[in-house]
Amino acid sequence: MYACTRYTVTGTAPCANASATVTVNGNGSPNAGTDGAITLCSNGPLTDLFAQLGGSPDGGGSWSGGILGGILDPSTLAAGPHTFTYTLTATAPCTGDNADVVVNIAAPPVAGTAASITVCDQGAAVNMLTALGTADPGGAWAGPSTVVGNMYDPTTMNGGAYVYTVTGTAPCANASATVTVTETGSPNAGTDGAITLCSNGALRTFSRSSAEALMAAEHGAVELLAGSSILQRSLLDRTPLLTRFLQQRLAPAIMPTLSSPSLRRPLPERMQA
């Protein structure tokens, strides 16, 4: 912007008038716009701070905090407020101008890491929040059963996928993680039983109701056939595990009889090692 002004002095005859011109150049004062504010999530996208200024700011200025081109990466900032100043310089005698943008950084929610747990159907309650590792408290659970206090109680709840969700502070999105619960059934050894055998008696058959926990030990000590367990007396000395089981579950009085060396008989062919 400029203007020309002619100054003229009238001369006394026969002298001619005299004139001179003054040219005025005008430099406009810079406009940095008005202050602005924005809230960003720390895991959010890059943001143009210039767009957060109000009014009609002039371009070409500089930003404080080492922000190049006005582009801010929120992941480089800690949670909380941060102030960035936009500055425009001016040619004397004009003065410069500046405006601030306050950026509030919100931390994203943490729901932990997906996990799987296995519990006994008659076991103690398990803290599912602990299974997720590092997770923010105060989230909500959704799943096959209602969760109280982050606990899974196998005696009253159903296994399956339980989703833990933590609500984010805008503009941060919610975060979720899943705990998959698998229940294992408790073993059933039946109820205690008792039997009296003759030392020269035949092979005996034990029903599952009295000896369901008999397990296959070394050399096929127990053979399960049609829901029954056939016990060969001569196997007792060869199978300490089976012997201990019978001592615990059946009448101790029969053990000397069953393990008597004089009563040992050959194994049936189907049960020999």
TL;DR of this structure?
With 273 residues, this protein is mostly beta strands. It has helices at residues 128-131, 208-211, 240-249, 255-258; strands at 2-9, 18-25, 36-41, 47-48, 62-63, 71-72, 80-88, 97-106, 115-120, 126-127, 140-142, 151-152, 160-166, 175-184, 204-207, 222-225, 228-231.
Keywords:
273 residues, mainly beta, Immunoglobulin-like, 3 domains, four-stranded mixed sheet, 33% strand, rod-shaped
Average pLDDT works out at: 80
> Overall 3D geometry?
rod-shaped
> Total number of helical segments?
4
Which spans have pLDDT < 50 for at least 5 consecutive residues?
208-231, 251-255
Write down the domain tally. Answer: 3
Going by helix content, strand content and strand pairing, the class is mainly beta
| Largest sheet properties | 4 strands, mixed
Rounded to the nearest angstrom, the distance between the terminal CA atoms is 111 Å
Strand order of the largest sheet: 3-8-7-5
**Share in helix:** under 10%
> What percentage of amino acids are in beta strands?
25-35%
The total beta strand count reads: 17
Radius of gyration: 45 Å
* Run of helices and strands: EEEEEEEEEEHEEEEEHEEHH
